[in-house]
Write a structure and sequence with these properties.
The chain has two domains: about 10-65 and about 365-415, Urease, subunit C, domain 1 (Roll), CATH 2.30.40; about 65-360, Metal-dependent hydrolases (TIM Barrel, Alpha-Beta Barrel), CATH 3.20.20. Helix content is about 35%, strand content about 25%. It contains 15 helices and 15 strands. The strands form three sheets. A seven-stranded mixed beta sheet has the order 3-2-1-4-13-14-15, with helices on one face. Helix 2 (about 100-120) packs across helix 3 (about 130-140) and helix 4 (about 160-175) runs parallel beside helix 5. The longest helix is centred in the middle third of the chain and has 18 residues, at about 160-175.
């Protein structure tokens, strides 16, 4: 089925806006600007003569999924880093990066966007060093927020690293299409000096840029921050880099450096205790949880139930395919549900509206309402009369890639390709 011209009217067995109950025999009217013009029952939504008609009678249409954390440029490295030990895995990744050119990163990012669409994901929160995801999203017409990563633990090189960060961000902001926002990502407490963290935080505030950092991901990171010990401390010492001042926890460390707050995304937050969770809630810091990646690297499980109970805004991410095998957010939502014992509709919110809130894009994506972008995920389902929200969410939650009948970005069908 070719992508219809806009405007278009989409009908389905069930339309589920996520922020309101499922609508049996629902319809969406998509304006010629690619935004939702109306949503409701089939008999409630206007039928403009000029609107193309698209029908999905045996499917649920829900908002396109939102990946709160990934690294699309690492797509070429799927299956190439088998190490079980996290530090060994990172060292292998560092060696690969030293011989990887920009063309490889761009090829990977393109493949990553297409794979995301195959799994019904329409928005990505991506972290990268090469700017490849921005270019790939621009070329393919995708949507996302791209955090430019900076890595430099040596305080003697802080000025140079910061200047390079600003240069990269200036170029990305100039080149990014309106569908792609730009942020920054000081990588992690064990790869960024305290001074660089602080300068990045000040820069982000001055420029109004969102910030994301990997934090509280692993026990070895906690040992580095709290005791100045472990493998990360050893690598700093052999490079004669002064260790940062110790802190109660990695999250407390970033709070002291002025990183936490509205507009900051804490990636992983596995090693977070009750005090850390209270800090995240108090500071209005969002979390991108990646349970499948955490499991693969032996980090433990993010405290999802406690984070949600405390009111922390949480979205789910896949991390990269160098860590997990697919960019499958349905699998991520199933893993989250198993960890926290949550209802299926709660799990699905973590990859739609809650993920949108976590990355600051809930004004535009993550649910269906007039004025929102018409980003759609169409899931084949065995529909029966009288299904409630829990039943619909349960059907959708079990989706595999083969169940994704279509993915739309701004009313344009991007999967399967026309």
């Amino acid at each position: 089925m070719p992508s219809p011209p806009l405007p278009a009217r989409v009908t389905a067995g069930i339309v589920w806006p996520v922020t309101s109950p499922p609508i049996a025999g629902g319809a969406l009217l998509i304006g010629d600007d690619g935004r939702v013009a109306a949503v409701g029952g089939d008999d409630e939504v206007p039928r403009p003569a000029e609107a193309a008609s698209v029908e999905y009678p045996n499917a649920v249409v829900l908002p396109g999924l939102i990946n709160a954390h990934t690294h699309l440029e690492l797509h070429p490295f799927r299956g190439q880093l088998p190490e079980a030990d996290f530090v060994a895995w990172l060292l292998h990744m560092s060696r690969i990066r030293q011989t990887t050119g920009d063309d490889t990163y761009l090829e990977g990012a393109r493949a990553g966007v297409l794979e995301a669409w195959r799994y019904g994901t329409t928005t990505v929160a991506d972290t990268g060093v090469a700017g490849a995801a921005v270019q790939a999203l621009a070329e393919l017409g995708g949507r996302g927020i791209c955090y430019q990563e900076v890595i430099e633990p040596n305080p003697a090189r802080c000025g140079e690293a910061f200047a390079n960060l600003v240069r990269m961000v200036d170029g990305l902001r100039r080149d990014a299409p309106p569908t792609v926002a730009i942020g920054i990502s000081p990588h992690a407490p064990y790869t960024v000096s305290p001074g660089l963290f602080a300068r990045a935080a000040d820069y982000a505030r001055a420029e109004g840029l969102p910030v994301a950092s990997h934090v509280a991901e692993s026990p070895v990171e906690s040992k580095f921050v709290t005791r100045g010990a472990g493998a990360f401390a050893w690598t700093w010492r052999i490079r004669r880099i002064p260790l940062p001042p110790r802190a109660r926890s990695p999250i407390a460390y970033l709070e002291r450096l002025g990183l936490l707050g509205d507009g900051f995304l804490a990636i992983h937050a596995v090693q977070a205790d009750a005090d850390d969770i209270a800090c995240l809630a108090r500071s209005r810091t969002a979390v991108a949880a990646c349970p499948r990646s955490n499991r693969r690297h032996g980090h433990g499980s993010p405290p999802l139930a406690s984070l949600l109970e405390a009111g922390v805004q949480v979205g789910l991410g896949t991390d990269s395919v160098a860590s997990v095998d697919t960019l499958d957010l349905f699998a991520e939502a199933r893993a989250a549900r198993e960890l926290a014992g949550m209802a299926p509709e709660t799990a699905m919110r973590l990859v739609t509206v809650d993920a949108a809130r976590a990355i600051g894009m809930d004004h535009a994506v993550g649910s269906f309402a007039p004025g929102m972008w018409a980003d759609l995920c169409v899931v084949r389902a065995d529909l029966q009369p009288g299904l409630g929200e829990a039943e619909v969410a349960g059907l959708v939650l079990g989706a595999e890639a083969s169940d994704i009948l279509a993915t739309y970005v701004a009313g344009r069908r991007v999967h399967p390709t026309p």
